[in-house]
């Protein structure tokens, strides 16, 4: 069970909201709630969030299939994919690629982002398997990901949130 942080908001009058932030669950509730109401609301919303998250999380196997489809459809099959999997030890980057083997690692901080954001990161890392560095040729290929510019903005905002 992840750590739960409850924030009481004087502006919130009825609704309760929960989301994952840096491995913990942040729950926002109306400030006027009693302790008993808070306990019931938090238990309910955290259960819903965990069920939703479990059903939408992408397995390593699904990640590999996604990468294969993106390689074929976006990169014309140019990338050499060794393996791709989620990792929990990347805190300063979204993904990494070992160019010699084509092995790709994606931070598990991206498990709950919209699909187009994950796709852009995967395409970015796949592009590294045939173009090292971040020169103009690299970006010509990496920016072919669907909604690439929008994904960059999303990731920039996510990074600023910490």
TrEMBL record:
Matching PANTHER family: UNCHARACTERIZED PROTEIN YGJP (PTHR30399), UTP PYROPHOSPHATASE (PTHR30399:SF1)
Protein name (database record): DUF45 domain-containing protein
InterPro entries (alphabetical): UTP_pyrophosphatase-like (IPR053136), YgjP-like_metallopeptidase (IPR002725)
Occurrences of domain YgjP-like metallopeptidase (ranges): 87-155
Superkingdom in the source lineage: Bacteria
């Amino acid at each position: 069970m992840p750590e739960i942080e409850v924030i009481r908001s004087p502006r919130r009058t009825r609704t309760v909201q929960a989301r994952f932030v840096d491995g913990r669950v942040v729950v926002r509730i109306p400030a006027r709630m009693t302790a008993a109401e808070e306990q019931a609301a938090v238990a309910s919303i955290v259960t819903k969030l965990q069920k939703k998250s479990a059903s939408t999380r992408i397995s390593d196997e699904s990640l590999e299939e996604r990468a294969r489809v993106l390689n074929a459809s976006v990169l014309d099959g140019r990338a050499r994919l060794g393996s791709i999997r989620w990792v929990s030890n990347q805190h300063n980057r979204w993904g990494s690629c070992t160019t010699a083997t084509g092995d790709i690692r994606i931070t598990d901080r991206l498990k709950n982002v919209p699909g187009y954001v994950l796709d852009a990161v995967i395409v970015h890392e796949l592009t590294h398997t045939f173009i090292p560095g971040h020169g103009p040729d690299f970006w010509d290929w990496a920016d072919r990901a669907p909604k690439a510019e929008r994904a960059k903005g999303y990731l920039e905002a996510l990074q600023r949130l910490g």
